[in-house]
Amino acid sequence: MSGTGTDARPESHPDAGDEGETFTGTGLERIEDRRILTGEAQYIHDITPEDCLHMALLRTTHAHARIESIDTSAAENHPDCELVLTSEDLQAEYHPMPCGLKGFEEWSLAVDTVRFVGEPVAAVVATDRYVAEDIIDEIDVAYETLDPVVDPLDALEDETIIHDDIGTNVPDGEEFVFGAVDEAFSEADTVIEREYSWGRISGVPLETAGVVAEYDPDADSFHIDCNIQLHTLVDDTVYETLGYPPERVVLDVPADVGGSFGTKIAIHRYCSLAAMASQQLDGRPVKFVEDRVENLQGGDMHSTQREYSVRLACDDDGTIRGLDVQFVDDFGAWPRYPVNQTLKPLSVLTDSYDIQDVRYRYDLVMTNKTSQTAYRGFGVPPHLYAIEMIVDEAARELGIDPVSFRQQNLIEPDAMPYEIPSHNIYDSGDYPAALNHLRDHVEATERVDGGLLDPETIEAQRADGRYRGVSYTLHIEPGVSGSDWTDRQRSDREALATRDRDAVNELPEHLRAEITEDGTVRAFLAADSSGQGHQTLVTQLLADELEILPSDIEVEYLDSGAAPTVYGSAASRMAVMLSGATQGLGERMQSNLCQLAAEEWDLDLDTVSYRDGAVERIDTNERLALSDLVAIDVANRSEGERLTRARYDYDHPATTREAFDTALTAKYPVYPTAAFAVNAPIVEVDTKTGEVDILKFYTLRDCGTQLNPVIVEGQAHGGIAQGIGAALMEEFGYDESGQPQAVTFFDYLLPSIKNVPNIEMQHSETPSPFTATGAKGTGEGGMIDAPASIASSINQALEPLDVVADRIPMTPNRLRRRIREAEATNDQ
Amino acid sequence: MSIETSESDSERPVREISLTVNGETVSAEVEPRLKLSDFLRNYRDLRSVRVGCEHGVCGACTVSMDDAVVKSCLVYAVQADGSDLLTVEGLADDGELGPVQQAFHEEHALQCGFCTSGFVMATRSLLKETDHPTDEAIQAGLADNICRCTGYQNIYDAVHRAAEYTQEDED
């Protein structure tokens, strides 16, 4: 390991004149901040064109019901009503929304049947949102209620089917067997088998979904401002719904988006409805902004809910022989776009452990709940949680110290790059050293007189019913998604066995730039952003590449029409892909500029060189600055041939590596970077109340090369805060009739400053050998690893009581119940 | 189906209000049910006032009303009649960031920024009550605001730094 440190603080622009000064790797202050801090930022909520109308949605209060009739006459007669839409209107002119699995036909407004509380049934457009909501109340819908299916395990029985045309509540499932699993389990000394639950949680960004759609009747095209995530990748969900070609449906995402964390990739329903409404109103702009109750109950923003059954085969000496993971994933009413979160865990199948024989099986079930979307980690956090829980219990059952047990089974550094059984490859890292380093640090700091783990304090607290503990766990954060695996569930799986490498599509990341007349540089991103600081990142990297000042660079965003289809901001991808793209773009621009200067001076290309923001003649040191070069370019070349404009596509790091061929051709998830983190949250459980207090959260994180340590650290802090909420507080509960129990922030509890403890963060840097800059990506960390580590620390604290954190979130009442049950058992 | 209407058909009750916003006196006719947050955003184009939950939990719409912090989504515009309001737009001095804004910038206490104006307003209020708040005082002062991106460690640091800057300004 190298370069551990604990303090990352933003730096003002370093002095330009300093020889060899670079901006990459420094905590350059963010470009985005000033406009946000002064109220000048423009989020989607702030966009309201002149003449804009406002849409509101009528949402059903039933979990499962047949729509007998809809009477919109009173609504239409309201003096402020401009438009009422029901599914009948949609079916006449438009198309269903694309679904994650074949065979499903989901319309933007419910057709015939409603399948979750909050599902939109009608849309109203009026002069403002207040009156649009008044008019909603005038619509009369008659329902015949049906039995709901709420529990995913009940849904497996198929007694009540929620999609008659599909004929089952389990439309997808698959079993993967790697190695000799049955042999491993039959030959092992011990098999540990347990069940775990992961509750329905999600990203819940502070900004709700929003859209402003405008139809242009003359051009027969749409311009849709919205805060959708991955606007160039998932634009098909909007243009296919409208029934238009992509070039006539432009999605434009503002530079400022108030958080997404994956969730906003599935807001196409709103985009489509607002666009249809605008078209029906001859091009009047139509705005829709989701309110918080809508967001929490029917905003299509919930994420992973799983029931796990896990087995671990071990020998008495502590060797893990095999792993068997099965789970049922409750997808809610519709299999939405990000259906592949059931498969992404294959990319970190064995987490940081060396296990060769593994079975992975899932059933994807439909229930009468809000549909799922992606959330930070995309299905990986529950997987890592289930693995760490069973590893804890194996250590306990074998009577081996949990750290020693983990150490014995970690992937060794000399095995890197390491191919896991499911064919993804971990790029680099020394896991045993990282685990030892943090363990030694925490033990030396805290298990001493006056420390949080002072044995005397632990004993005294325990006498008072408060149990303290810490666990040391190491987790992999798979980074940089490609794209070609994400339609595996819609592919002919037999055909995948013989698929050719040439048939594999991978999406590069696009970046373009132009030099303006005054010599400053404008760069354009093809991906959207939601707080990750992409403008800052590209600015600092491009400043280094072109040897100019960050203040001479402006970074803007392209809409889905101007940008090529890229994958975009997801899956801890942008630091790697944007840094690769910026490096490539910088080199291309330098070479263009040298050519331009050589032509101007009538010299050979090798007699000029680029240095300090200008091209220089090697013989005379005469220089042409960027502004000079633009003038020459404009004078001599046509628009399409300018050399002061360049574009570059950085290929996905797996594209040219044969080692990934097996995974790529068979559509197994490929994540070519393995960032990792060691966590050690010190927890105290009050056995009288079941409350968990995280006294301090130690973490050592490695995301390869840190391009901007301040941004890296901010991402990690935010991720851990979300992980704490997931582990202990947040959940979208439902009652037996399918009524959502968390529809306000009084019920869906987000961590506040009182819930997030002091975090001591260390960093190491193990550059990735697979990426241009050595970066590994860091966008999902914290949320990926904190829940598992917190649950593991709770297990350690409550070991004397024989209580296991077998459910996420481990809310006080749940934990109190476990403790009470354990006390009853122990008393017998 | 589109419906032919004329906008003047509607008869919605209105009341006249007059108040000071960022030092400027403004009058308007508003519906009694109009939220102050919507008034500031839609009638005054004050974009720093962010609407995150509309039920008083997230704190993104926090503004100062007669020197007390309020969640503007829980106040009707008519209730603000005659009051003196301050939003983030009123904090920057000739384009220079105010001390709290500067501290949030320097400590990287924001990412997506949607919660930031609320935190800035709450911090400003806290520093008016307490020169150098302890971590416990910061917890109490900012417990009504939610950040979803950055966590809270950098926010503690930003408040401490803002306290220094505010003191320097006054010295």
Characterize the structure shown.
The complex is a heterodimer of chains A (828) and B (171). With 828 residues, chain A is an alpha+beta fold. Chain A has 21 helices and 30 strands. In chain A, the strands form 7 sheets. In chain A, strands 3-5-1-12-9-10-11 form a 7-stranded mixed beta sheet. A 6-stranded mixed beta sheet of chain A has the order 7-15-14-13-8-30, with helices on both faces. In chain A, strands 18, 19, 27, 28 and 29 form a 5-stranded mixed beta sheet that branches. In chain A, strand 16 and strand 17 form a beta hairpin. Chain A is globular, with a radius of gyration of 28 Å. The two termini of chain A are 50 Å apart. Chain B has 5 helices and 5 strands. Chain B is an alpha+beta fold. In chain B, strands 2-1-5-3-4 form a 5-stranded mixed beta sheet, sandwiched between helices. In chain B, helix 2 packs antiparallel against helix 5 and helix 3 crosses helix 4. The radius of gyration of chain B is 18 Å and the shape is globular. In chain B, strand 1 and strand 2 form a beta hairpin. The chains are: A alpha+beta (828), B alpha+beta (171). At the A-B interface, helix 1, strand 3 and helix 19 of A face helix 2, helix 3, helix 4 and helix 5 of B.
